[in-house]
Amino acid sequence: MNLMTIAGALGASPLPWVVLAGVFVGASISRLSRRSRPGRDPGSERSRRWIGVCLLLSLAVILGLAAVFLPGPTRIADIRLAWAAGIAAVVSFLAFRFRKALGIPVLVIAVAFAVTLGLFLQSVRSFTGETQIATVRVISTAASSMRLELVPRGGDTTLLSMKGDYFAPIVKVVILDDLLVFLGGRTWYRFEGMTSFDTNLRQQDSDYRFARAPGIAESVWAFFEANETRIPGVKTAQIEMTMKRARDLASFDIRVQNDGGVEIVPRSG
């Protein structure tokens, strides 16, 4: 699990942030509830206590803001997040307030919970992640023909005139084993170009091929295709073509899934 993957998981979910915010809230309440120690200046100790409480609450507020703005404000409207923050605050309060009796057991539980949560977020992100490789905008459609605007990832815009009613990207993929996907691996791809089909799903003769296809080199893909059963960590190497019906002025994203397969989804925004 690399740092970029962990950062991506933290940015995708508000749960880790609200749990950490709850931990700091519980710690601040624990500090506030402590009695003054005998033999110490009550005024000075009270001042230090309030400084510590304000610092802990400030950190909780910062983490709460991160939970709102990093994953997006719409993700925070979930009552289960409030429960998670409340439970974290209670556990944190007990751990800091009664350190001798509960501190070590609670610390062990908290560490185990954090590791489990991290693995869960990593698995969800790994097997639901995807890589956008291009966008397609349908400029116009006519009787069994269409005009498309194709923008590959990191490439220049190309205008296509194609026969048929359905367009389909031609993508060669090297799909990795589940363990590598879980550890942060992504499907390797080579975006060859576009083809099209009529309403009877017959392929037309107006294919478009990139002069320099985005993704891995042809020789690399051919090597994996020829040796897929002998290369550890490779599940398969294959060609993916997913069809989408062209609609006037519609825009689509073409995405390669982490665990293999190609999707064409309506473009948001």
Structural overview:
The protein is of the alpha+beta class. The protein has two domains: 125 residues, no CATH class; 137 residues, no CATH class. Helices cover 45% and strands 27% of the residues. The strands form two sheets. It has a five-stranded antiparallel sheet, with no helix packed on it. Strands 4, 5, 6, 7 and 8 form a five-stranded antiparallel sheet that branches. β9 and β10 form a beta hairpin. The longest helix has 30 residues. The relative contact order is 0.13. The N terminus is likely disordered.
Summed over residues and divided by their number, the pLDDT gives a mean of: 80
Evaluate the radius of gyration.
Answer: 27 Å
Name the poorly predicted regions: 1-6
From the N-terminal CA to the C-terminal CA, the straight-line distance is: 32 Å
Regarding quaternary structure, what we see is: single chain
Strand content: 25-35%
Q: How many beta strands in the DSSP annotation?
A: 10
Which percent bin holds the helix content?
A: 40-55%
Classification by helices and strands: alpha+beta
- List the strand order in the largest sheet: 3-2-1-9-10
Give the CA-based shape.
elongated
